[in-house]
Each structure stands twice: as structure tokens, then as C-alpha cells.
Amino acid sequence: MTTSEIDTSTATHPEIAAFLRLALDAKLATVDEVVRWADSVVLSEARPPSWSIDLALCRTWSRQRVSDALAAVSVGAEGDVVRWLLAARLAGAVLRGELDSQRAIALAWSLPFRKADQEPFDALTRAVFATSECLDGVEEGWMTPAAAAAIFREAFEPFAAREWRASE
Questions:
Q1: Are 92 and 163 a contacting pair, CB within 8 Å?
Q2: Measuring CA to CA, how many Å separate 17 from each of 20, 123, 150?
Q3: Global confidence as pTM
Q4: How far is it, in rounded angstroms, from Cα 127 to Cα 22?
């Protein structure tokens, strides 16, 4: 499978904000990561947007307030880029051992993806569909968690190379 269909390296501020908001809500990102991203925006732009200064100072805010601020920045984000950023984070978290593959599969199924009447499927939709029987199989006992994890890794590993991380 190739993940070259969407170039996440050119994600815009609204796309990163939308990704961080959803990742924060799913506990795949932290407020500290939001602060690091906002700091990098402040430092890289001659006239940083006001939202970047606010988010650079949001370390003591509630998660909900941070999420709301990210939602305001994410207006105009391209949904396909955001879902690919999320898929890459899921894959990276599983490969680093930070996220159980069963949780990752459940989260992957919550991503927006193309329906059967919207073919051709993109690589992300094909990866999600590859895991279609994993959750039920483990729950019903006819698939081991290790087998489900292997299916997830095979389907999602190519996305891990595209994972966006806030600079340290």
C-alpha cells in the first residue's frame, strides 16, 4: 500500500489545529504538544497570528478550552489531510507501544472514510477496512489480540512515516 495519496508534510495551520484538537480529545496528543506547535508558529512568522500567542500560553487552560481554541483555528481545514494526520498518529503510537492496537482499531473506525458508493477507496479507507473483523473477532473469541494487532500493523504501518510531531 502506498500512502502517497495525501501529502501531510504541507499541512496548513488549520489542518494541524484540527488534527491536534481531535488527537487531544482522543488522548493522542497533549496540551504540551499544542504549546510546542504554537511556539514554533510564533517563532517562525514575522507577524505571528494572535491565536498562536494565545495557544503558546495555554499550558494552564482546561483541555476543553484548548480544544475550543483549536476548533476556532481549524476553520477551513481539509478533512482528508486531517484524517491522514490522525491515521499516522495512530500508527506511530501503536508502533511505539503507546497505544493498544484494539484501541487504535476502534479509533481508526471513528475516522471519516469513503463509503462504498464513493469508490475508488483511498489508501486510508482500505487500511480501515482491512481491520473490519478485528474488534468483533477478538470480542467473540475467534481472533487473538495478537492476530488483530498484526492486521492493524500491516494495514497502518505505512502511515507511521507520515506522522506529524510538534518540534521539541
A1: yes
A2: 5, 23, 31
A3: 0.86
A4: 20
Q: Alpha-carbon distance 138 to 125, whole Å?
A: 21
In tens, the pLDDT along 2-35 reads 444 677 778 899 999 999 999 998 899 999 999 9
Q: Which three cell numbers stand for residue 40?
A: 514554533
CA angle (8 as vertex; 104, 71 as ends), nearest 5: 75
pLDDT digits (tens, 9 = 90+) for 117-145: 666 777 888 888 889 888 889 999 999 99
Taking the C-alpha atoms of 63, 100, 11 and 119 in order, what is their torsion angle to the nearest 10 degrees?
-120
Q: In three state form, how does the secondary structure of 43-90 look?
A: HHCCCCCHHHHHHHCCCCCCHHHHHHHHHHHCCCCCHHHHHHHHHHHH
